[in-house]
Specification:
Elements: E1 2-8, E2 11-18, E3 22-27, H1 33-43, E4 48-53, E5 58-62, E6 87-92, H2 100-107, H3 111-119, E7 122-128, E8 135-138, E9 153-156, E10 160-164, E11 167-171, E12 175-177, E13 180-184, E14 205-210, H4 213-221, H5 226-230
Parallel strand pairs: 6-14
Antiparallel strand pairs: 1-2, 2-3, 3-5, 4-5, 7-8, 7-14, 8-11, 9-12, 10-11, 10-13
């Protein structure tokens, strides 16, 4: 492994090269990775096969066209224009899911107190993963941080809202999951077959809105996606 510092997109970064197989890029200050990761992805460098962005680092999977001098090409990256962030209302039916007991026990708060804090919080889209359409929402109050389950559930229903660590998460697909489910949204997060299938961008804002079971049924019957609901 080799390491060097590099001035990229008006900020300092540490770049680690692991045997020309992949690069790890670490920031020296917070709040700079999402923009840089997006610029690298959009540039479509021929020596990069995959771009993976998290809050802590950017991982670049390299191919045979890479050599160490190619790292200097990152210094020319410039944002063409600042994409404006959007705010979306996210309707949530806070169901009586069995995971509520664990969340209340860990936080020491009642369901009503937890919901009150969620409704008063402005969330931002932090990143996407671990499966297609899964959304990590940043901004969860520290009083609501709950460790992920030691034994993941075998099935989490699509469009479930869940708490995991310091994030509020959205499951866009049916899948196994280790987060604590606290509710369900009646609108689709994915827009298939549109490209890109996710309407959200990094740093978009999300405001949680509580709805009743009756409202959930009414909205769900309309088969709306998140964009149509917010229109």
């Amino acid at each position: 492994m080799t390491s060097r510092s590099l001035h990229l997109h008006n900020s300092e970064f540490k770049v680690q090269n692991f045997n020309n197989d992949f690069l790890l890029i670490h920031p020296t200050e917070e709040g700079t990775l999402a923009t840089l990761g997006k610029l690298i992805y959009e540039k479509k460098f021929d020596f990069i096969d995959e771009v993976i962005v998290t809050e802590q680092e950017i991982c670049l999977k390299l191919n045979a066209l890479f050599d160490d001098s190619k790292i200097d090409r990152f210094t020319s990256l410039q944002a063409s224009s600042q994409q404006p962030t959007k705010t979306y209302r996210l309707p949530i039916y806070f169901s009586d899911h069995e995971d509520w007991q664990g969340v209340s026990t860990t936080t020491g708060l009642s369901k009503e107190e937890i919901i009150h804090q969620l409704l008063a919080t402005d969330f931002t889209v932090a990143m996407f993963g671990f499966l297609p359409g899964f959304i990590y929402l940043d901004g969860l109050p520290k009083t609501l941080h709950v460790p992920r389950k030691s034994v993941p559930a075998k099935y989490v229903k699509a469009n479930s809202v869940a708490i995991g660590g310091k994030y509020l998460g959205l499951y866009a697909l049916d899948s196994p999951g280790g987060w604590h489910v606290i509710g369900q949204v009646p609108v689709s997060i994915l827009q298939i077959p549109q490209l890109p299938p996710l309407p959200l961008n990094l740093q978009d804002r999300i405001q949680c809105v509580q709805i009743t079971s009756e409202e959930f049924t009414q909205i769900n019957a309309q088969q709306l996606n998140l964009i149509a609901y917010n229109a």
